[in-house]
Amino acid sequence: MNSAASRSGLAPARLAPIFIPRVWGACDLTPLFPDHAQEEEAIGEVWLTGDACQFATGEFAGRTLDEVWPLLPEEWTGTAMRGLARIPLLVKFIFPEEKLSVQVHPDDEYARLHEAAAGGMGKTEMWYVVNAREGAAVRIGFQPGVTRDSFQRAIANGTVEDCLRSVAVRPGDAVFVPAGTVHTICPGMVLCEIQEHSDITYRVFDYNRVGADGQPRALHIPQALDVTRFGEAAATDAGLCNPARPTHGSVAKTFYAACRYFATERWEFRERVHAETSPERFDLLIFLEGCGWIEFAGGRESFAPAEVWLLPAALGAYKLVPELSASVLRTYVPDLDGLTKGPTEGSSVAESDWSRVVHR
User: Which of 7, 31, 18, 3 is nearest to 287 (CA)?
Assistant: First the structure.
């Protein structure tokens, strides 16, 4: 047992979600949020670790994440996360009932130079498919032969979707979206998005929609062309993840993707799971299915679907105890060198499997 956790009384903390209207969103947010089946306004995103999200449990209950995070000691953030002005991971649920705009996000260097007022961080992200209707798909990356010139022409004549690859998705899939990759999300699914903590989006096409003010939504074509990767510079790892599945006791683990910003894995279990935090970094647990308890040195907390829990780095050993069965996404800021050697002792995974999971 980690003695720091025992001395300080550290405990997992649940963060309360924020429901954000979007023109392309849904009014029915079930099954993740049964109490939100008939929203008056379409909700597109539910932010779980946004700056304005409040702590729902523990010593910081009622205070917002942006208020608390800069004050947290390294027992919470982890030694490798020391000094960060905000939590580095932004986690959302996405509920599209219409297509999102065709868009692209900048990398860190471009954001630092041109978007300082918006936080100066780029946006690499990953989508986990929580559920999906038959035929659900995303569009990500270019079809062969698309150039900057042909893309500009497609923007002008409204055929930009034809430039993008269509990727069918089903529940349990994940899609990796590096900065500089043009993409859109189509209707008929619920996603969990894990990303750098940035909200910088450059729209290139938006189906002539208007915003809440009745005006056409803004496009950002010059910026989008600046940051989009074409030809040999395009990210070859964008698209559907080919995960690794180590064998590890009673929990079925699936490792989807790891990059310098985040690593994400799914745990499925019917029995008690023993785990331990690293003193270098905090963990986020995003519960998808099932109810149960998080047990730790100082007590226990109950968990339920659609909840996100922040586990302090110095929490140490803990257990997940399901009532029947449960599934959870664990995400964190990884040590990539450590991951290339296999993130779990006792795992049975070939080195080649880890190489396709890790994106450098």
Answer: 31
Query: Over its length of 360 residues, how does the chain's per-residue pLDDT go in tens digits?
Result: 333 333 457 999 999 999 999 999 999 999 899 999 999 999 999 999 999 999 999 999 999 999 999 999 999 999 999 889 999 999 999 999 999 999 999 999 999 999 999 899 999 999 999 999 999 999 999 999 999 999 999 999 999 999 999 999 999 999 999 999 999 999 999 999 999 999 999 999 999 898 878 888 999 999 999 999 999 889 899 999 999 988 667 899 999 999 999 999 999 999 999 999 999 999 999 999 999 999 999 899 999 999 999 999 999 999 999 999 999 999 999 988 766 555 444 455 666 677 788 998
Question: 9 by DSSP, 3-state: which?
Answer: coil
CATH number of the domain enclosing 131: 2.60.120.10
**How would you class 58 by CB atoms within 10 Å of its CB: exposed for 0-12, middle for 13-18, buried for 19 or more?**
middle
Q: Residue 297 is part of which domain span?
A: 252-357
Strand-pair category, 18-26 with 43-47: antiparallel
Instruction: Give yes or no: residues 228 and 337 share one domain.
Output: no
Query: Which residue type occupies 155?
Result: I
Residue recorded with tokens 């449960």: 326
Provide CB contacts within 8 A for 154, sequence distance 6+.
160, 162, 163
- Picking from 240, 270, 296, the residue at the C-terminal end of a domain is 240
Q: Do 204 and 152 form a contact (C-beta atoms < 8 A)?
A: no
d(CA 203, CA 180): 12
- Answer whether residue 290 is part of any domain: yes
